[in-house]
Amino acid sequence: MDFLKEGLLKVDPGLLLWTIITFIVLLLILWKAAWKPIVEALDARAEKVRFDIDNAERSRQEAEKLLSQHREMMNNARNEAAQIIARGKEEAEKMKNDIIEKAHAGATDIADRAVKEIELAKDKALADIKTEVVLLSTEIASKILSKNIKPEDQKALVEEALSKMGTVQ
User: Which residue has the higher pLDDT, 106 or 157?
Assistant: First the structure.
């Protein structure tokens, strides 16, 4: 155990006292000079971290709010587009029905006019035929009265009148 008395583990009371005093003085100097700035720097760093976390949380909440607003706007836009399309289809259907109705009414008017024109033409043709028949009848009657004709001549006159009526028709 001689090495304890002469080695590093040998305790010298004077050296021990000065080591303790130096350590305490160094601690006081560090306490005054370095400890306060280190603690302040750590506090500032902790405050900055808290501030950044709060900012990040606010940004996240704002982003979520904007996202929900964006989704709502998109849904509204989709609904509005669907309504516009539905209104367009409805209006197109109404226009189609109006056009069909107008075309049907026009076709009915044209058909009615055509029927009236045909009836007028028929009435005119019948009136013309009646006039022709009257003229032919009077002509035949005048010929019959002007001469005393034989039955063969009468038959020929009637056939001639009928042939004239046949060409009129």
Answer: 106
